[in-house]
């Protein structure tokens, strides 16, 4: 059996236990620290799956999240004993979520063999399949198509053509293919991401601003 | 909040420069080695957050202010957009119009290092700005009682 | 159900755990924790779909060229998929900024009501 798969299953089990503790514990500080453990576990899994970019980013993001959350929680004690909502029975919520997960997972994992929306077995991505390379030709120039076969997924095509400098396909020239995809092939994604960060930062500023509607102490309701 | 103990301050003096340097390295070499603008930007924000935590709010108010963070945030976004618009020299938005160079060299891959720099500055400044807002907010409320915490 | 599907299943369980915390918990910090766990699970699911089993006896190959241009063909035959990694890289940072925004909202609510409990907030007539 594949040792990487065993390690992966062990790490996923650790993360599952950590997340359950984080959700169910009464103490908010322990909850935050457990979610930190889950985040560092995610980083290790990324490293295990051959994604060092993601591992670096996840570690640093986790540190920042942990600093902010611990700072928020450590000075604000909140002694609430009932942790679940009184209006929603826990059993109903768990049943609904379980049915939803089973249906989605069943649809993804057990679909038709040739369907487009189907999870392939772990370790055998779509890019391992091969199709005729004529699909790579630019629009209107079928004579520029390379001969033979190419990968069935876009990721495989990016890997194969990443360094090409011909008329038919110009690669990025970046040794780190992830950065090539992120900032050249799919740079619109990155533009949208920058916009999302901008909006989130503006929202946080607006929520936390000190100069706001002034409130006369005592003679006005809290609204 | 007036900073942490002497030990924390001294360690921060030694370490903070290296953290910033590591973040800059991760940003600049993003197209050659693992890393890139996102990871490097978050590392920069983490290093600056360490400085603010160790030296306290006074330091943040004098040196690393909201205005600096906001300015750097906008400058990073503008740099990225400038790279995108200059792509019209090659025909369309976001074209990689610079020569590609040798694989693995620092000056290679066309516009990717410049875009990486813009993204790194933008992510670092944006996240550091949010952190600064959270830290300053806590200082404002922990002084008096919660009801009178909001400053006029 | 083969062993090859078990990682996906565990990730789905993680996703359900995060969703459960968002729906059923009344403490705002627990809701933030649920959002974070949901984020991790979604990222993991994407990266898992791009993994390619390396040749026997070797470690997984990251899509990064370390040995110069001569190595490119070999890398294209063995490396894992770079597309999900690029998507998840943006998703992680977006998750961080969204978490910061939610924390800011929670801190603001605590300042107003003196508690993180959403049901108590409702009783206090906000």
Description of the molecule:
The complex is a heterotrimer of chains A (223), B (152) and C (126). Chain A has helices at residues 3-24, 28-48, 52-74, 90-109, 154-161, 177-185, 187-208, and strands at residues 130-132, 149-151. Chain A is an all-alpha fold. Chain A has two domains: 1-76, no CATH class; 126-208, no CATH class. A two-stranded antiparallel ribbon of chain A has the order 1-2. In chain A, helix 1 (3-24) runs antiparallel to helix 2 and helix 2 (28-48) runs antiparallel to helix 3 (52-74). The radius of gyration of chain A is 25 Å and the shape is extended. Chain A starts with a helix and ends in a 15-residue tail after the last helix. Residues 216-223 of chain A have low confidence and may be disordered. The two termini of chain B are 20 Å apart. Chain B is an all-alpha fold. Chain B has one domain (6-148). Chain B is elongated and about 55 Å long. Chain B has helices at residues 6-28, 37-62, 66-86, 112-143. The relative contact order of chain B is 0.17. By secondary structure, chain C is an all-alpha fold. Helix content of chain C is 68%, strand content 0%. The longest helix of chain C has 32 residues, at 82-113. Chain C starts with 5 loop residues before the first helix and ends with a helix. In chain C, helix 1 (6-24) runs antiparallel to helix 2 and helix 2 (28-49) packs antiparallel against helix 4. Chain C has helices at 6-24, 28-49, 72-78, 82-113, 118-123. Chain C contains five helices and no strands. Chain C has a single domain (3-52, 77-123), classed as Helix Hairpins, CATH 1.10.287.3510. The radius of gyration of chain C is 21 Å and the shape is elongated. At the A-C interface, helix 1, helix 2, helix 3, helix 4 and helix 5 of A face helix 1, helix 2, helix 3 and helix 4 of C.
Largest sheet of chain C: none
Strand content of chain C: under 5%
Q: What percent of residues of chain C adopt helix (DSSP H or I)?
A: 55-70%
Number of strands of chain A: 2
Radius of gyration of chain A: 25 Å
| Biggest sheet details of chain A | 2 strands, antiparallel
Q: Would you report the number of β strands of chain C?
A: 0
What's the arrangement of strands in the largest beta sheet of chain A? Answer: 1-2
Helix content of chain A: 55-70%
Low-confidence stretches of chain A: 216-223
Largest interface: A-C, 98 and 91 residues
Report how far the terminal alpha carbons of chain C are from each other: 50 Å
Tally the helices of chain C: what do you get?
5
Q: What is the domain total for the residues of chain C?
A: 1
Order of helices and strands of chain A: HHHHEEHHH
């Amino acid at each position: 059996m594949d040792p990487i798969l065993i390690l992966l299953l062990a790490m996923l089990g650790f993360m599952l236990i950590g997340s359950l503790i984080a959700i169910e514990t009464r103490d908010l500080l322990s909850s935050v620290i457990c979610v930190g453990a889950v985040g560092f576990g995610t980083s290790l899994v990324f490293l295990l799956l051959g994604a060092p970019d993601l591992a670096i980013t996840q570690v640093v993001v986790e540190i920042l999240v942990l600093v902010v959350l611990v700072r928020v929680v450590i000075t604000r004690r909140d002694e609430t004993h009932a942790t679940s909502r009184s209006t929603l029975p826990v059993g109903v919520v768990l049943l609904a979520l379980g049915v939803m997960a089973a249906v989605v997972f069943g649809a993804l994992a057990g679909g038709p063999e040739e369907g487009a929306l189907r999870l392939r077995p772990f370790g055998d991505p779509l890019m391992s399949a091969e199709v005729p390379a004529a699909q790579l030709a630019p629009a209107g120039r079928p004579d520029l198509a390379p001969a033979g076969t190419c990968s069935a997924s876009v990721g495989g095509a990016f890997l194969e053509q990443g360094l090409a400098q011909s008329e038919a396909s110009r690669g990025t020239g970046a040794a780190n293919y992830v950065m090539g995809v992120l900032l050249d092939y799919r740079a619109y994604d990155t533009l949208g991401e920058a916009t999302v960060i901008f909006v989130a930062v503006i929202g946080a500023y607006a929520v936390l601003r000190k100069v706001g509607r002034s409130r006369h102490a005592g003679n006005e309701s809290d609204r | 909040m007036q900073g942490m103990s002497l030990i924390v301050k001294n360690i921060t003096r030694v370490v903070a420069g290296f953290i910033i340097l590591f973040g800059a390295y991760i940003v600049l070499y993003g197209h050659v080695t693992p890393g890139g603008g996102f990871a490097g930007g978050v590392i920069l924000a983490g290093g600056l957050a360490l400085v603010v935590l160790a030296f306290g709010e006074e330091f943040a108010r004098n040196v690393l202010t909201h205005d600096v963070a906001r300015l750097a945030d906008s400058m990073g976004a503008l740099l990225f957009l400038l790279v995108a618009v200059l792509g019209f020299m090659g025909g369309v938005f976001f074209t990689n119009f610079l020569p590609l160079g040798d694989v693995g060299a620092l000056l290679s891959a066309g516009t990717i290092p410049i875009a990486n720099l813009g993204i790194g500055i933008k992510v670092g400044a944006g996240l550091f700005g949010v952190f600064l807002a959270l830290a300053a907010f806590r200082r404002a409320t922990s002084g008096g009682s919660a009801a009178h915490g909001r400053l006029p | 159900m083969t062993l090859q599907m078990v990682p996906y299943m565990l990730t789905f369980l993680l996703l359900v755990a995060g969703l459960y915390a968002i729906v059923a918990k009344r403490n705002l910090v627990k809701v933030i924790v649920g959002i974070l766990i949901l984020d991790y699970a979604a990222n993991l699911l994407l990266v898992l779909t791009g993994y390619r089993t390396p040749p026997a006896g070797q470690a997984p190959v990251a899509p990064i060229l370390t040995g110069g241009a001569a190595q490119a063909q070999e890398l294209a035959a063995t490396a894992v998929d770079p597309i999900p990694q690029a998507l998840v890289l943006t998703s992680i940072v977006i998750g961080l900024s969204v978490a910061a925004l939610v924390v800011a909202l929670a801190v603001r609510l605590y300042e107003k009501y003196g508690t993180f409990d959403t049901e108590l907030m409702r009783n206090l007539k906000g």
